[in-house]
Amino acid sequence: MSAYAQQGSVSGKVADEAGFPLVGATVSLEGTNQLTQTQADGTFRFDRLVPGSYRLTVTYQGHVGYNVELTVGDGHQQLDDIVLSTRQISLGEVVVSTQRRTQTSIEVPITVSTLSGATLNRLNMRQMDEMSAFIPGMEVQLQSPNNPGYVIRGITSDDGDSRTQPRISIFQDGISISRSRASVVELFDIERVEVAKGPQGTLFGRGAQIGALHIIQNKAQDRLGAEVNGGYGAYNHRFVNGYLNTPIVAGKLANRFAFNYEGRDGFIRNLSGGRLNGKEVIALRNSTRLWGGTNTTADLILNYQYDNYPGTSFKSKRFAPAGGDTDPNTFADLEQGEDLYIKRHVGGATLLVDHRLGDAWRLSSLSGFRAFDSDESFDADGTPAQLLWLSELAKGTQYSQEFRFTYENNNRFSGFLGAGYFYENSSQEVPMRVNEQVLYPAYIAPILNSQLSGQVGQLGASLGLPDAQVQALTQQIQQLFHTEPVIANGRPQLVENLPDLQPLALGLINQLIPGGLPPGITWQQLLQSGMLPEGVLPEQLIGLVTLLDGSPINHAHNETYTTYGRNQAVELFADGTFDLTEQLKLTAGLRGTYEAQRGGYRADAASPPSVFGMIANNGSPNLLNPVSDGTIYASKNYYSYVGRLALNYVFGRNNIYGSVSRGRRPGVISIIPSETTYLKPEVVWSYEAGLKGLVADGKLGYELSTYYYDWSNFQTLSLQQIPGSIAPQLLADDGGKAHSFGIETGLRYFITPTVNVFGNYAYIDGKFNDTDENGNPQEYAGNRFRLTPDHSFAIGVDADVPLNGRSSVYLRPTYSYKSGVYFEDNNRDDLYQEGYGLANFTAGYRFAVNRIGYEIGAYGKNVFDTRYMIDAGNSGDTIGFPTYIGGSRSIVGAQVRITF
C-alpha cells in the first residue's frame, strides 16, 4: 500500500461553551499537512486518510486549544461535539495565509511575523508604528497618516511622488493598499497581521520587493456578539471602538459593523496658534458574509477612514521661537497657526469569493476598489517666517482583480496558480507660498552675492583692472548683500527693498570712459544714451543691475507643481510545495508581470513672476519649480519576473528552511522639463536560512533567521540641482550597488498557561557598496541605509492571573529599543537620531456577569516620557533649513471594555 493512500474520513463540529458554532476554527492533524477551517455551522471534515493513529488539534482565537488521539479505519468516524472554552492567551502555532492557503506560521518556509488581533488588543496597539516595534526587522515611521515610512530589513518605502513605486506591499484582506498616501489604516477589530519578509513578489505581487504587510480584518460570523471599548488619558486622549456582529439569516447571511474613533491634543504648542502633532480619526467598516452552501463563501467589506489632524511640527534647529529653544519636542512658532492641518479621506470596497470546486481544488476571486483624497498644509522651514509654506493635495483611485486556483490534495503537493490585473491613477499637487521679503535674507542674498562677485571678478580680470580695485568692488557687493539673520529674538526680519547696484555700476563705468560720465546721469539715461562702450559689461550683468534698483520686494509669491502617475499591470503567477518525503519539502514560485507606466509633470509660470527667479534662475518666473509647457508625460513598459525556491525540513513541531529569491522594484520615470530620466528597475537577490518551532511541550516558541541581500540599480532619493530651480530638488536617483546582512530572532515562553514572556531582536548591516557594477566609486560608498538601526529589540510580559472561575487581573508591560539611525542615505551628522527605548503597559481587572465580560484597566505609552525624533531633513532641507519632528510624549490613561 502506498504511504500516501487515503481511505478513511473524520468529521466533527466545534462550538463554544454556550453552544454557538465557532466559524473559522483551525483543525489540523499533526504530523501531516492536513489542515482545514470550520464552516458556517462549525463543522469540519477530513477525507481519504490513511488508516492509522492521529492527533487532532483545534485552535481558535481567544479560546483554549483542544487535542485528541484518533484511530482512523477504512470507514467514516463522526466525532462528538468539540467545545472550546475562552481564555485570553492561547498556546501553539498561529494560523497564517501568507502562502495563499491556510497553514500555521511554523509550516511556511519563509520568515513570517504574526500578531493576532487579541495581541493587539491586549497590548493596546491601534497604530501601525506601535505594532511594528514587536516585529523584528521592521520599522514604521509615522509622521502622520499622510506621511508613512515602512522599513523592512533596512529598506525604506516612503516616497509620496505619484511617479514612484513602493518596495514594500501593504495589503488589506488580500487587496493592495500600497500607495503611500493611502496606506495608513487604524488597527481595530483585526483578526491578525502578517509580515512576510524578504522578496515576496511571487506571493504578494510586484510591489513586495523586500516584504509585505498583510492586515486581515475580522469577518462576519453566524452569531450575535458585540464589544465596546473606550478610554481617556493625558493630552485629552480619548478613544472608543467596538463592533456589532449580527446573524441575518441563520447559516446563510451575517453582518459585522466595526467602528473606531481616536483623538488627542497635539504634543507641541504653537505660539502662532493651535497645537501640533495631535490626532483625530474616525474609521468605519461593514463586513457582510454570505454562505452559499457548504462550499462557497462571499465577503463584501466596506472601509472608510477620515483623518482630521492638526499640523505636523516641522521645527527648525537654526532658529528658536521667542522664549524657547530648538528642541523638536518643545513648543514651536510656525506662522500659519491653525491653518496647518492634515485632512484625509480613504475608502474602499472589497469582494472576496471563495468556492470549493471539490476535495482538492478551490477558486478564489479578490476584487478591490480604493480611493483617497488628502490635503496637508505644512510649514516646511520650521520658523516663524514664511519661507516655505507648502500644501500637498494627493488624490488617487485604484482597482484590482485577482483569480486564484488553489490545489490541496492533502497528499504530496499543494499550491496555487492565478492571474491578476491592477490599475491605479494618482496625482500629487504641491502649492507653494513664499514671502520673498524673508526668503531674500535667508537664501537669495547669499546666492546673488556669490553670483555677482564672480561676475565682477571675471569682468575686472577681462578689463585688466588692478587686483585691489577688483577686490574693492567685490567688497562693495558683499556689503550691498549683507543681511541680518532672518530670525532675531524669535521674530522674522523682513527686507522690503532690493539693493541698488546702479551707483556701483555707474562708478565702475565712470572709471572706464575717458573723461568720465556726465554729472547726475542715471543708469537708465546711460543705457539710452549709447555712451556705454559695447561689450564692456555682459548683457546678463546689465540685466541684473537694471533689476536690482532698490525696488520693493514682493511680499507674496505663489507657484505650484503637480506630478501624475498611472500604472497598469497584468500578472501571471504560480507557487507550490512538493513533499519530497513526509518531512522534506520543496517550494517554488514564479510571477511574470507586464506593466505599463506613465509619469507626468506640470508647473505653470507664476503670475506675477518672482524677481529672484528672473535673476537667479535664468529668467524663469518660478523659484523652485521648472516651468513646463502644459502637462508633459513620459511612458515606459516593462516585462519582468520574480521567483523563489525554498527547501525545508519539518521535524516534530519545528521547521528548518533555506531559500533563494529574486525581488524587483519597478522602474521610475523622473520627468522634468529639461529631461526625462528612466531609472532601471531595482533588483535584489536574497539568500535566507532559518529555524523556528515549538519545544518544551509547546511552552517555548522560537524563531531564528539570517539573510543576505545583494542589490543592483538601488534606488534612493538625493538632492539634485536642476535647471529652472534656485534650490536642489529631492529626486529619485540610482544609488548603484548595495548589500545587507541581518539576523533576527524571537522567543515566547509560557511560564504558566496564563503568564508568558516574549521578546525579539534584530541586527541589520545594510550599506552601499564602495563601487558600482562597473567598478566606479559610488556617491554613498559605505553609508548605512536610512531609517535603519543596527540593533533593535523588544521585550514584554503578558500575565493574566485568574482570581476565580470568572475574573482575573492582568499586567502587560513592554519595552522596545532601537539604536541610532540616519534619516537620509547621505548619513549627515545633523540628520541623526541617537538610540532610545520606549516603555508601555496595560493593566487591569476582568470579570464576567451573566455571560457579559467587563474589563477595567489602565494604559501607558512612553511612560518615562523619552524624548526622541521620528524624522529630520524634510522639504526645508532644499533651502538649507532642515526640520525636525519630535516623537510621541507620555500618555497614561484609563479604559473600560464590555463584551457580550
TrEMBL record:
Matching entries from Pfam families are given as: CarboxypepD_reg, Plug
Protein name (database record): TonB-dependent receptor plug domain-containing protein
- Which UniProt key words apply to this protein? Cell outer membrane, Ion transport, Iron, Iron transport, Membrane, TonB box, Transmembrane, Transmembrane beta strand, Transport
Sorted alphabetically, which InterPro entries does this protein's record hold?
Answer: Beta-barrel_TonB_sf, CarboxyPept-like_regulatory, Plug_dom, TonB-dep_rcpt-like
Q: How does it sit in the membrane?
A: Multi-pass membrane protein
Q: Which organism is it from?
A: Parapedobacter defluvii
The TonB-dependent receptor plug domain covers 106-211
Signal peptide positions are none
Give the main localization category. membrane
Give the location in the cell.
Cell outer membrane
Which Gene3D superfamilies does the entry link to? Carboxypeptidase-like, regulatory domain, TonB-dependent receptor, beta-barrel domain
SUPFAM superfamilies per the record? Carboxypeptidase regulatory domain-like (SSF49464), Porins (SSF56935)
Q: Which family does it belong to?
A: Belongs to the TonB-dependent receptor family.
